[in-house]
Design brief:
2 copies of one chain form a homodimer.
Chain A: H1 6-27, H2 34-40, H3 45-51, H4 55-67, H5 83-100, H6 102-112, H7 126-141, H8 151-173, H9 178-192
Helix pairs in contact in A: 1-2, 1-4, 1-6, 2-3, 4-6, 5-6, 5-7, 5-9, 7-8, 8-9
């Protein structure tokens, strides 16, 4: 067996994942084969299988990697923006990623097709709901939203509303109108949060 | 070839569709075969294929039938309730059907899996959005909501918000909390519509 240099091996793995994301975002789980990924990454079936046991393994890596990215739960705004400003930034940023980031689009499609994938994918939404809940408590403490609001419940509804907006936008306009729909959603959501100065965020 | 009486033939077709809906709602398109539908409907592969050319044909009939049912676009409240009352009734009724009506649940799952199904399914959402838009115009004329609201845009957002709520509820609680989440959603949506007396609808 040929021993590959670590750097080359990492580069090959990244190339496989990048090609897989494009195909999975476009064709979905059932429409994407290891052979196709090998062809599109200009590697070879053997090399793909050297890096990933199975197609489901590739799916899991793509979903996990999208979930750990900046717009999502864990990373966003830890040191930069806070409270309601961070909530709004997070929703805009996730919407942008849903539209423009092929790795995130692949992850969203795979999460949608989770029934077909024989591995346990991370539970969606819960991390983001928890993060928005924490930010809404900051917003309440700062006096930026209605006092006494149920932060976790409002966070659940923001994520639900967001998900529905991106879904309908996806089905009816291939997400072309998503930025506009997200701004409309934010304007409505800021009202229901009892935001003191909604125009500051729009 | 045995000539079957019409009544018996209709009954068999219904039995096949009922069994197919249960399996499709539970296992999805890829997980349901003609052989399984034949087994569960206690008919036989030949009889299933006598009634339906292909599995995709069964999917299409189930989706079309769900779309033409009472809670959806065309039928709701034509003669009974009007305006904002009908909007609220429609959202509650569709939510109930998403949770409790196996034919609707099968249709929702098939719409979600449309990528896998080699027929053109009806475009989702648009009929319901149009119907809610018309009802919101009635509500505006009756002075029940903010004057000058953009009825079609608000209808788009109601359907989007609804879809997201049922999705998150489905993924995180198997739709157990759906009725409660829908009431929370309605309370928030009535505020953004500038409803004059929201408590009348809750």
């Amino acid at each position: 067996m040929v021993v590959r240099s670590d750097a080359r091996s990492v580069e090959t793995r990244e190339r496989i994942l990048a090609a897989a994301a494009i195909e999975l975002a476009d064709r979905g789980y059932a429409g994407t084969s290891i052979a196709l990924i090998a062809e599109k990454s200009a590697t070879g079936k053997g090399l793909v299988q050297y890096h990933f046991k199975a197609k489901s393994d590739i799916a899991l890596v793509i979903v996990r990697s999208a979930f750990s990215q900046a717009p999502f739960a864990n990373v966003l705004g830890v040191d930069t923006v806070h409270g309601l400003e961070a909530v709004v930034a997070s929703i805009r940023s996730v919407a942008g990623a849903f539209r423009d980031d092929v790795q995130v689009r692949a992850a969203v499609r795979l999460m949608r097709e989770y029934h077909l994938i024989p591995v346990t994918l991370p539970t969606p939404y819960v991390g983001w709901i928890a993060r928005i809940g924490a930010l809404l408590r900051e917003a309440e403490a700062a006096g930026d939203v209605r006092q006494g609001l149920d932060a976790d419940r409002e966070a659940w509804h923001l994520v639900g509303y967001f998900y529905g907006v991106q879904e309908i936008s996806n089905r009816l306009s291939a997400r072309e109108d998503l930025p506009e729909r997200i701004e409309e959603m934010l304007a409505r959501a800021l009202v229901t949060l009892g935001t003191v100065a909604p125009e500051r965020y729009l």
